[in-house]
């Protein structure tokens, strides 16, 4: 990690607490905006009534439909941000992201196959399928990317991920073409969005997200050791393989479950950990929770922006994050010296 | 080693290469003949010849003249374009993974084509022109973005991957704005398909092959010199900057025109070069053989997608699925030899 040289390992505790307050405040503000802003203009009294659960008028109904959407955006953003931070930690690679590594496409292919061929529609099995797909792809891409000289360099991982993602996507297309009846729904899901969320649909994912979160927090200290290099970590008494497996499992749980509900949303997992390293340094015990909070804020902000930019229609959040994220990706690539990459 | 031995070796290699090219041409012609004769039904060769000569043959005139011939011609022309363009990029960037479909140039062209068709309502040659201009724009942008006191191949590929992600999400967005466009048809085009091919569509592809393909083939020697590195190439008397510029314009032109007509047939540009290089070996430039391999891939892929698989698939799905295992092999192989990654 080159950041270690330029960014202090620990920001002073006070600065970190300050940032914590700032990020929390931003998240709350964005959440409020997400409930208040949408295609339909609503007044303050309607918002308050909608928050109390009244659906008497159209405006109140609109507000109460925005609440689960906002909650989903928070959950999805937190999971993706956390998952990105974990992946970057495990692979020690600044470009790791569920989208770039093709993990999202793997989950998408698994879901599409399950829907088209095995008539699976229960949310519970949907999630398992997505997590299995994400896991298989992650292992596959990492295995290919780390073959040969120099181990898993960022370039090899990114190429292996992109190419795998293209190949898997053409399989997705092959499946979708045979099933015209479900192609529309699948194509909409493919873009990645949080629109049309309901609490009922979110329910089944929560245990997976909770498990992922717990595993992530438990592996924070281990990731700190891994950052020193495998030999050093082993020398410090860390069981390297176990630490990697734990963090990777948690990352896969988080992004697989999120993809099952929202569809593939890219780049949140890439941007957020970088921003957070600037704010709080490279200590994973701080970095991981911060990535979750910042990820939530970023996704809610992107969702709100998508509603404002394309009025009266909406821009799916997956498109907004790609347009913010891709330039950011390029910026990281330009910033680092090629040898580091 | 005496001068005679060197000359003899050179002659042997040139003979081997021309044998390869002739064999490929014969095979391609055979494949072309088979696709004209054999579809859902069998048409005897004498009927095919009479149709080609312009005579009216009951039954065969429609199936061969209207359905099979345009399809086969377009397959070969598009395959030649993809093969040439892809191999030119791979040779110039000295990396088999740096093909236009992985570094975002194909996506740029297809994004432009989708935009031209869906939003601006253009068709025919106008779409091709638009795609070429946008493809060049994307190529220049990638080049400029990866410029930092010189362009390193690694950085260029990574920047391309970022651009590719952005273009993909632009395509998704444009499609989601186009409710009138049949989604099934859009997915088919985006996968790359020869459905509904007409001879008139082949004209722009043929023109671009003559102009851009001719430019590339004339530059073969300079292009091969670039393989040795920029310094060595200049020492050998190659104008590196001008060669690069010509190659980029010509290769992008080939890819963009073909993409505008048949869609981004996945992985043909990526596969043709390495396959050709394996066949030709160290016996000369793989540029022309790559074009022939590309044509063979598209022709065979389209045939397999129509008749050899259960259900009918567009050619891009077949090449995409075929490309996946080869890609894995290639990444593993490149990694093991530790070549340019």
UniProtKB/TrEMBL annotation, chain A:
Organism: Paracoccus siganidrum
Transmembrane stretches, start-end: 17-37, 70-87, 99-120, 126-145, 157-178, 198-220, 241-266, 286-305, 317-334
Gene3D superfamilies documented for this protein: ABC transporter involved in vitamin B12 uptake, BtuC
Similarity remark: Belongs to the binding-protein-dependent transport system permease family. FecCD subfamily.
Protein name: Iron ABC transporter permease
Subcellular location per the Swiss-Prot or TrEMBL entry: Cell membrane
Pfam family, one: FecCD
Record keywords: Cell membrane, Membrane, Transmembrane, Transmembrane helix, Transport
Membrane-topology descriptor: Multi-pass membrane protein
UniProt-recorded Gene Ontology molecular function terms: transmembrane transporter activity
GO cellular component: plasma membrane
Coiled-coil residues: none
A biological process term (GO) from this entry: siderophore-iron import into cell
UniProt xrefs under InterPro entries: ABC_BtuC-like, ABC_transptr_permease_BtuC
The UniProt record lists the keyword Cell membrane: yes
From TrEMBL, chain B:
Top-level taxon in the UniProt lineage: Bacteria
Record-annotated membrane-spanning stretches: 20-42, 72-93, 102-120, 126-145, 157-176, 196-218, 245-272, 284-301, 313-332
Source organism per UniProt: Paracoccus siganidrum
Bilayer topology term: Multi-pass membrane protein
PANTHER family linked: FERRIC ENTEROBACTIN TRANSPORT SYSTEM PERMEASE PROTEIN (PTHR30472), FERRIC ENTEROBACTIN TRANSPORT SYSTEM PERMEASE PROTEIN FEPG (PTHR30472:SF24)
Protein's name in the database: Iron ABC transporter permease
Classification via Pfam families: FecCD
Location relative to the cell: Cell membrane
């Amino acid at each position: 990690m080159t950041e270690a040289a330029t960014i202090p390992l620990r920001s002073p505790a006070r600065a970190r607490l300050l940032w914590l307050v700032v990020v929390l405040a931003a998240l709350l503000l964005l959440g409020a905006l997400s409930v208040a802003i949408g295609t339909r203009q609503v007044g303050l009294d309607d918002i308050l009534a909608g928050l109390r659960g009244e659906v008497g008028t159209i405006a109140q109904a609109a507000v109460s439909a925005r609440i689960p959407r906002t909650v989903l955006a928070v959950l999805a953003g937190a999971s993706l941000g956390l998952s990105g931070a974990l992946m970057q930690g495990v692979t020690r690679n600044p470009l790791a992201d569920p989208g770039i590594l093709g993990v999202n496409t793997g989950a998408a292919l698994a879901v599409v196959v399950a829907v088209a061929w095995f008539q699976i529609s229960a949310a519970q099995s949907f999630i398992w399928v997505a997590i299995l797909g994400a896991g298989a792809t992650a292992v596959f891409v990492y295995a290919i990317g780390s073959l040969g000289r120099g181990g898993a360099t960022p370039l090899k991982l990114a190429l292996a991920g992109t190419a795998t993602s293209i190949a898997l996507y053409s399989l997705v297309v092959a499946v979708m073409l045979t099933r015209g009846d479900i192609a529309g729904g699948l194509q909409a899901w493919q873009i990645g969005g949080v629109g049309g969320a309901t609490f009922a649909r979110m329910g089944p994912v929560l245990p997976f997200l909770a498990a992922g979160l717990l595993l992530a927090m438990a592996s924070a200290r281990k990731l700190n050791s891994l950052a020193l290099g495998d030999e050093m970590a082993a020398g410090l008494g860390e069981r390297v393989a176990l630490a990697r497996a734990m963090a990777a499992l948690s990352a896969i749980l988080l992004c697989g479950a999120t993809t099952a509900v929202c569809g593939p949303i890219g780049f949140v997992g890439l941007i957020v950990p970088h921003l957070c390293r600037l704010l709080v340094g490279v200590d994973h015990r701080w970095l991981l929770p911060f990535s979750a909070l910042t990820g939530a804020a970023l996704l809610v902000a992107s969702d709100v922006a998508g509603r404002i930019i394309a009025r009266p229609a909406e821009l799916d959040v997956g498109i907004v994050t790609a347009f913010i994220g891709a330039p950011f990706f390029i910026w990281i690539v330009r910033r680092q010296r090629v040898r580091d990459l | 080693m005496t001068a005679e031995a060197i000359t003899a070796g050179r002659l042997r290699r040139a003979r081997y290469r021309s044998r390869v090219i002739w064999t490929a041409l014969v095979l391609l012609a055979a494949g072309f003949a088979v696709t004209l004769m054999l579809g859902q039904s069998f048409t005897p060769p004498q009927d095919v010849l009479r149709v080609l000569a312009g005579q009216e043959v009951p039954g065969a005139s429609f199936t061969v003249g209207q359905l099979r011939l345009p399809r086969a011609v377009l397959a070969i022309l598009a395959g030649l374009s993809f093969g040439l363009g892809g191999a030119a990029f791979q040779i110039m960037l000295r990396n088999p993974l740096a093909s236009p479909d992985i570094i975002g140039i194909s996506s740029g062209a297809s994004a432009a084509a989708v935009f031209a068709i869906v939003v601006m309502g253009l068709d025919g040659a106008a779409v091709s022109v638009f795609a070429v201009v946008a493809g060049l724009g994307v190529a220049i942008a990638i080049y400029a973005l990866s410029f930092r006191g010189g362009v390193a191949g690694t950085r260029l590929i990574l920047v391309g991957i970022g651009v590719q992600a952005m273009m993909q999400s632009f395509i998704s967005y444009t499609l989601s704005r186009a409710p009138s466009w049949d989604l099934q048809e859009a997915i088919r085009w985006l996968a790359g398909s020869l459905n509904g091919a007409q001879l008139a569509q082949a004209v722009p592809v043929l023109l671009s092959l003559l102009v851009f393909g001719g430019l590339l083939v004339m530059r073969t020697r300079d292009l091969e010199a670039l393989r040795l590195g920029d310094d060595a190439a200049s020492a050998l008397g190659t104008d590196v900057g001008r060669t690069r510029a010509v190659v980029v314009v010509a290769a992008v032109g080939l890819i963009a025109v073909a993409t505008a007509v048949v869609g981004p047939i996945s992985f043909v540009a990526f596969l043709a070069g390495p396959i050709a290089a394996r066949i030709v070996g160290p016996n000369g430039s793989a540029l022309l053989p790559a074009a022939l391999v590309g044509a063979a891939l598209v022709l065979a892929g389209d045939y397999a997608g129509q008749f050899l698989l259960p259900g009918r698939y567009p050619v891009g799905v077949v090449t995409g699925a075929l490309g996946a295992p080869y890609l894995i092999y290639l990444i593993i192989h490149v990694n093991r030899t530790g070549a340019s990654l």
